[in-house]
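Re-run with default settings, no changes from the original entry. Doing this only to confirm the output is reproducible before filing.
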Amino acid sequence: MSRAEEFERLRPLLFSIAYRILGSVSEAEDAVQETWLRYQTYPAQPTSTKAFLSAVVTRISIDVLRSARVRREEYVGQWFPEPLLTDPYQDPERSAELADSVSMAALLLLERLSPLERAVFVLREVFGFGFGEVAAAVGRSETACRQLAVRARRHMDAGRPRFEADRREREELAARFFDALREGDVEGLRELLAADASLIGDSGGKAPQLARTIIGAGNVARVFTSLFPWLVRIEVTLEPREVNGQPGAIFRDRDGKVLYALALDVLDGRIQTIRAVINPDKLGHLGPVADAWAINREVNQARRPRD
């Protein structure tokens, strides 16, 4: 097998590691590409190609994350990870860990860890690497990595979200939510939301907010049912999709361009949190991006009373 073939076989794993460390599709793709460039020029043949490439992409991701954290501290408003529709890496033996670790809620918890803690947690807890492999990847001793893993696990366990275990129940609840949204059914939406449900948007100051942070089932339901009919009037469509392993949707303008992505957290049979990613910089990997400012102007114009 050639180096290029070996690399392509492992590309899904490398991307999945980088995405969980970085929370960014574009940065993860860049990290994987840089890994290939380094592998291409590496003079020797590694004993384990998987271990070697995983270590390289991890080190690159740690360096990128350190600089990215500075930018995120200056970010306008709430920062969310870039939405991921499909995780390219699948492992039946670790399917639960993989699904939970890619959710918006889990990635936001990972943001609280140091870059080293985050990398160790991802490699050890999510992908099941041995401590020897983890130590080689992050350039620390096995003892230090065990300590980092304990600290990271403690932070994650303290805030770890508990999602609805039954995938089908989550999907059915989301389908009922989007049906009620299309029908403008405020009470129907309210019944599907947890009492303290929240709606949070990430525009990065580069698009009009869907709404400021909204708390409470009634408030969230009213925001959606007051806005959605006007979006429909200007031919915005809703496309249910899995977003970061959870139920969600992509909203598109009349030309099919991406307006924003929604991700739903489901807990105890109710929708707990709705996250809207509106920042156009975070949507480009999903396809051509709509002009959210133009859509906002159209909505405002449509809402104006006519003489």
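The two ends are 72 Å apart (CA to CA). The CA atoms of residues 234 and 298 lie 7 Å apart.
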